[in-house]
Amino acid sequence: MKILLVDDDDLLIKILTRNLATHHYVVDVVKDGEMGWTYGSTFEYDLIVLDIMLPKLDGISLCKRLRTEGYTVPILLLTAQDNITAKVQGLDAGADDYVVKPFETIELIARIRALLRRGSNNPFPLLTWGDLLLNPSTCEVTYNSRPLNLTTMEYDLLELLLRNCQHVFSTEELLDKLWSSEDFPSEATVRSHIRRVRHKLVAVGAPHDFIATMHGRGYYLKAPSTEESTTQSATPAVNNAAGDSQIAVSLKTLSDFPKYSPPDDSQQQYLSFLNETWKTTKAKSLDQMTILLQVVRDLQTNQLKPQQQAQAQQVAHKLAGTLGIFGLSKTMHTARQLEYWLGGQEPLQPKYAPLIKTLVMALQQDIEQTTLIQLSQVPNGQSPLLLIVSSDIEFNQSLEAVAASRGIRIQIAPMLENMAKALGARDSVLDSLDQNPDIILLHFPSIPSEPHTYQVNNFWELQILAQRYPGLPIVVISDRSELCDRLEAMRRGGKLFLTAPIAPEQVIDTVVNLLRGNEITKKVMILDDDQDWLHTLPTLLKPWGFQVTTLADPQQFWTILEAVSPDALILDVNMPQISGFELCQILRSDPHWQRLPVLFLSVLTDSASQNQAFTVGADDYLCKPVKGVELANRILRRLQRVKAWAS
Known about the structure:
The protein contains 23 helices and 21 strands.
């Protein structure tokens, strides 16, 4: 698969091209928008990864230009702008996805795979053809469960044929698809690779003509014989029993594969590459620290100029991006906090000098002490994430140490200082988080001389968090423990109330217990013949962590149901061939699926339709259009009842 990367950040280009190459992507790189247009309009790409802030022609304008000229290639925006306005602007310009720097490379690769699947004939995570199975997530290939050891180019060739299994590729097409614009070998090279792949396939039991030749036209995958496997096609056909079997095989087999882990040799090579790159990056980062140290000195003497503060904020922002690329999460979060405090609308006052100095010194110390990069430093995304909203640095650091020992990741956002900073400032901080938290800890500061202001600000902050993350448990820590404070905290969305002072171990114990009680599997299957809703609903449910499987064809319902095994089902009423009411009745007649929560989501608002839904066994009924928060809460309530019944 061929990707065009348009970015002017040399470090990001170096790291990202290395990672993309590891996952068998061919990458062309250009560093300004005009060259991006030249390459994007001249060569054929499967995906364009595009920064917004570019020389000569900005990314938004380039995206609009490509769409205006009729280019439909998927576009993923990659930018440091992490506000809602920038995201909406990018998506409205025609982008298909949006990733904020700094990012976890593993997440970016997953997003790229998802975008490529949308434009492929095969929308499923695995690529199969007869007994041949290729998993893009792990870069593993097997034939009849026997592994194939392929070179990078051989893997790329086989993946291309599998993704376009009904297409006959000429040698010219293969050259264009599999080699970058800088490397353009002869047609004999293509024929040589085809010959080697055929030889390796035959060695594990495949037919000699598995990759067939259509003389005068090119190469294609020959349709498997019926004896070879029940898995007949990489593109399942509607109303085709063999196609239905393919869906089940693809989805069931996916769980059997491990997550991507490079071979030991590749892992060591990548570590060496990272550490060599870190040597030069570390020196440049420490040079930038002189700007931040000067800000501390000028702030202490009340001589800090606005342009100086703006420059320091940009330095902190770039450092956060750089550190994130290397997987230095703790140091990256320190840089983010610094960026937040330097990025206010008003000039910093000398009273903030101790806070800024603490953050700058911590940042410098972490960079100086990082001598080797380890792959284990990159979070695996599986451990729970605790969001701590607190401006008490010592408190945050003590919790971070205990949480790390318990396998809990932490992200920190400072408390809003006053009402004047309002919702925009809070959204700016929360939007910059890598992912939604699993639990929130809100630490009220010590009681000031104005207790009324203290109450208003703190409880207002609690209410914002509860509205932003509905359904997530919020633990409040305060040194006020009167009945009125506890009552107000519960009214504003608090789940638990702890009284300060309290040991960090006790706080994390409380968090762990809440997480255990909050573990609810959230696999949701949605069946609707309205393609617009099928694309909209996963986005609406994303903030609540639901794993969404969508399906438009009722004929494939039972196959997908058994393969996915959802925790909740959302059905439309009127669909071709089989109605939602009939499907619900079928579910309620099966002993295994009798208790599966079923929610109807329909344009029908009449009471007769709603009554019929409940008669056939529905648990809930909602009318389109629906807000994400309402749908998510309805689903969560059903899942909680199922869990309570099971226990």
